[in-house]
Amino acid sequence: MKFPARTRLASTALGCALAACVVMLAACASGGANKLPSGTIEASKFLFDRGTDALKQKKWIRAREYFQQLWDNYPDSPYRPDGKLGLGDAYLGENTAESLVLSANEFREFLTFYPNHQRADYAQYKLALSHTAQMLKPDRDQKETREGIKELEAFVTRFPDSPLINEGRKKLREARDRLSTADYLVGLNYYRWRIYVGAIGRFRAILKDDPEYTNRDAVYYYLAESLMAVNLKAEALPYFERLVAEFQQSEYLAKAQTRIKELKTG
């Protein structure tokens, strides 16, 4: 059945008006839920709280939007420093190659703006984590490992009373182990290729630069074996003895004990 043109036009207009009303109501409902309260402190707190909630839910982009608006628009807000840390945490939490670079920038900027802030220890620690999260395997480039070590050393030196100090020391040990393992693998290759002078130099450098290296039992063993190979037996003996003295369990322990007997009886 055909309706007159005027009726069709009226019907179309009514439909559009109803649709517009629905859109407006939805927009009002949405805007009401997220409308910024008046006043600098209230508005900045609103942004900080929303950013913090998004951060807890691991909604990294949304969290950054709230924190960035706080940082950009409320320079005098007491929530601004924590908002800067929130930005760094949101980038760090995303954990991509790009976001880790950006998280380091945020924490570094925090320390530039607020070097004596009560949460400066947190910023320094998270700056270090932004680098250690980018560490590669020991057989690859160790640039980020070195950066992480530098920032962790700054953390433990500057903030010895931080509640994060134990975590920081643990992370520092892990990073140093990664770097020393990289050097150890180079020395081990020298040893396998029978380039003993190169191996000796590399192993000695590890013990000098990182005397607490977790896997130094391997360094002791291959350094001593390299010294044996170039007929420096007197210099090799102390390293075998250190291995036995410092490690109750090691895959090199029995071999070292055998070498000690050989050197002392031969």
Structure, explained:
By secondary structure, the protein is an all-alpha fold. It is 77% helix and 0% strand. It is built from 12 helices and no strands. Helix 4 runs antiparallel to helix 5 and helix 8 packs antiparallel against helix 9. The longest helix has 30 residues. It is elongated, with a radius of gyration of 31 Å. The chain starts with a helix and ends with a helix.
Short description:
With 266 residues, the protein is mainly α. It has twelve helices and no strands. Helix 3 runs antiparallel to helix 4, helix 8 (165-192) packs antiparallel against helix 9 (196-209) and helix 9 packs antiparallel against helix 10.
Q: Which terms would index this structure?
A:
single chain, about 270 residues, mainly alpha, 12 helices, elongated, disordered N terminus
Strand content: under 5%
Tally of alpha and pi helices: 12
Strand elements, count: 0
The whole-number mean of residue pLDDT values reads: 89
**End-to-end distance:** 116 Å
pLDDT < 50 stretches: 1-33
Radius of gyration: 31 Å
Coarse shape: elongated
Write down the oligomeric state. single chain
Helical residue percent band:
over 70%
Alpha-beta classification: mainly alpha
**How would a textbook summarize the main sheet?**
none
**What is the string of helix and strand elements?**
HHHHHHHHHHHH
